[in-house]
Amino acid sequence: MKKFLSLALALVMAMSLFAISASAKDFTDDGSITYKEAVDVISELDVVDGYSDGSFRPKGTLTRGAAAKIISNLILGPTDADALPTNVSPFKDVPAGSTFAGYIAFCSSEGIISGYSDGTFKPAGTLSGYAFMKMLLGALGYNQYTENYVGANWKVNVAKRAMNVGLDDDLESAFNGSRALTREEACLYALNTLKADMVEYENQATISVGDLTVQSNSKAKEVEDKNNRNGTIYRDEVLQFAEKYFKDLKLTKPSDDFGRPSNKWAIKSKEVGTYSTSADASYAKDVKAEDVYADLSLSDDQDFVVYVDGEKQSTKINIDDVDKKLSKLYSDADFGNGIIVEFYFDDSGDDTDARMIVINPIFGEVDRIKNDGKSNRKIVIDGKEFETQSFEEDDKVIYTVAKGDIQDVMLAEKETGTITRTVGDDVYIDGTKYELSVSDGADNSTVKAKDDVKYYLDANGYIISIEADDSTNVDNLAFVDAASSDRTDYAKLIFADATKRTVDTDDNYRSLVGKIVSYKEDKGEYELKDKTTLSDENITVDYTKGNATFATVDGTKVKVNSNTVFVYNELDSTGKSDSIKAYTGFKNAPSIDGTLARIAVRCEDNKTSKAAILVYVEI
């Protein structure tokens, strides 16, 4: 049975819980479906279907009559279930010929459902989780009388057995059997039933005396797979529900790119979809051996095959060594805040080795969009491409990589505030304590108390990036073309809108000639501050329009994006400005073919690793 921990991965839940093939049914409200694998498989089998408007309505509640239809579809198949006679009903409030009459009569005759003491079934009433689990257990072969699914304690007995056989596996929250069952929960429980073992009894006998029914049975035992099909669901000698009733349904367990076992479903040769399975234990901070022992219910040490960002390591790790820093064992990874660590151990019926999966989320920026058409839209991050219809240029994102390729991307939300204090790796911002993620190397050494900062949190609430909020508006930047203090201090400025103006200054700024500055005007005098990230007077500029890299200065590449403002100042033969033009965005700035020029650049946050805000080129 899967273990769901308090440290369950918010990030992995947000990123790549499943990968879906094109053959799965598409509903108009797919985005609101939590249990996508279950809905896809169960709807593809026509056990539960959507509505005529194309929606599935996953949060809609299930009626008792609809539940009887699901059970009938599971056991008989949709075609035979639809052909059930509706002329007789065992309950007085289920008229012959009504929509659910045939399903209800069938389930009643199989001992799967029972009505109320007044002889009614209440087909339009909502169904509780307990009631549906009882029906599913009946479909698996459990006898309601032998198992005490009747009487005062029937709910407790149903819940114990349902949990034991895994009917609630992958449920996001704790099972609440009293609450009305939703349509997607019904699909999840039905999917788990497909994978569950059939049971049978020996020496079965039923004795009825008046209103009292006594069942004499041996203990329920697993049904042997007598047909020896090598298992279409699990490779064992036990007959699973789907192996009895859905012989064309096949489940295989390939690995995804991270090395995680996945569920791949197919009906004959038609693929339904491939979905990453839930981990048996998941962590997003330091992992201790005693915790893994407890969470996986291990009684002895255990070796795990280790995958780091999809790369299988050459050496297994023993669970007793798991609380050592992973970097001592594998050079490309570390345990700690923000690092995703998953254990896969208890894949019933599968021969997969026990696995430990390590995933390092990375903070980055969307450099550009490659769009060959709506269906071929790709984003480029740190030179890697990822096909998606989401995200725009310059978006800050958190992404994962497996085997060198981007697997998942999520938007990183920017927060701003003032540092109250720092204590070790902890940062207090506006009085709130935050811990740093070790993934991607978040560093607080460059910030100090009272600094205004901008920071980004991962899905688990750890700071994955923090830096001083040194934002500069391009509209407040200018290039200093000349400066003098002959009689009064002044400077000749070229602004980001390509205008040129001589201004009085409050000081001698000759040292800022050739630099990009910010300016502030007070009573007709300008105060200038150096905002240059890099500059050079004699450099060959070889730039192609549309490139995300502008030039190389002393070996440093200058990133440009759709917000970068380019100011081109073309000089005449005497060295005076002949034409000054401004362009916004690297797709609009003209190419420059190997020309010797003077340049000055201001990058975001004054870091060469960030995109340029303003590029000045004097040709």
- The computed structural class is alpha+beta
Sheet-strand content, in percent, reads 25-35%
Write down how many β-strands occur, each being a DSSP E stretch of 2 or more residues: 35
**Whole-number tally of structural domains:** 6
Task: Give a short synopsis of this structure.
The chain is α+β, with helices and mostly antiparallel strands and 619 residues long. It has ten helices and 35 strands.
Write out key terms for the chains shown:
disordered N terminus, 619 residues, 6-stranded mixed beta sheet, alpha+beta, single chain, 33% strand, 6 domains
Question: Could you characterize the architecture of this molecule?
Answer:
The protein has 619 residues and is of the alpha+beta class. It has six domains: 17-201, no CATH class; 281-359, no CATH class; 362-411; 414-468, OB fold (Dihydrolipoamide Acetyltransferase, E2P) (Beta Barrel), CATH 2.40.50; 474-530, OB fold (Dihydrolipoamide Acetyltransferase, E2P); 534-618, no CATH class. The protein is 15% helix and 33% strand. The protein is built from ten helices and 35 strands. The strands form nine sheets. Strands 8, 9, 10, 11, 12 and 13 form a six-stranded mixed β-sheet that branches. Strands 16-15-14-17-18 form a five-stranded antiparallel β-sheet, with no helix packed on it. α6 (129-140) packs across α7 (154-165) and α6 (129-140) runs parallel beside α8. The longest helix has 13 residues, at 64-76. It is elongated. It starts with 9 loop residues before the first helix and ends with a strand. Mean pLDDT is 85; it is low at 1-23 and 347-351.
